[in-house]
Amino acid sequence: MQKDLENLINLLASKSINYYDFITKAKHINEINSLIEVKSFTMWQTLGLPIIKLDNGKVTLKTRETSIDEAIFCVVDIETSGGIKDGQIIEIGAVKFQNGKILDKFQSFAKAKSIPENIVELTGITLDDLKDAPALSSVIEKFKIFLSDSVFVAHNAKFDYNFISITSKNLGLGPLLNRAICTINLARRTISAEKYGLSSLKELLGINNAHHRALNDAISACEILKVCLKNLPWNVQSVEDLIEFSKNAKTVKIITPKG
User: Fold this and answer.
1) For a 10 Å CB count at each end of the chain, is N or C smaller?
2) Alpha-carbon distance 105 to 121, whole Å?
3) Strand partners, 75
């Protein structure tokens, strides 16, 4: 994401700004101008940014005003055939979550030409599993419709978010602009544990399902999110409060077992 775009989104996440100022700043962001008409809030929302115009004419993000209980979180996990430079997404799993309940699920393989043996061993996904899978472009397009402008959540969110965003951009579908939360960061501030990897937290919290498959891992991350949200301090009320808390609040004291 270009620095100017990142700065604009951070500004909107912190306060409302004049419509004219928003348009002026947005028009200087080439990455966005080449994709959408910056005056169209619907187009921004299609890219995942929950932008709104207030009754006073100012522009902001609805996540500033949306309570955590009202928010829709999309908890995501991907399996890939390698890194972003030498691999591709081969499976996406996601669950939409609101106020303690799962609203909907998304799961799809994506066609690939090859899968390294170590990835087959790790995930159990083979080329035979992908033989009838839809093209990656179709999977990303359908996933983005499912995601909409909900809050993107993942365990190690930077990896999943950036991989999907770069893939989407390379396919001509535009980057992701959704607000995002990492459950590793959030867990470090709400759950006392020795390790914060997905398998470690699953064991600590008694979450039992298969590991290294996208939908199962998304469901596991959703269960971790539930625990994190129950442990929030009272002053974390809105989605933007939650994002800020997940990044900058003090981490909890780690309890090391004796013996």
Assistant:
1) C
2) 26
3) 95, 153
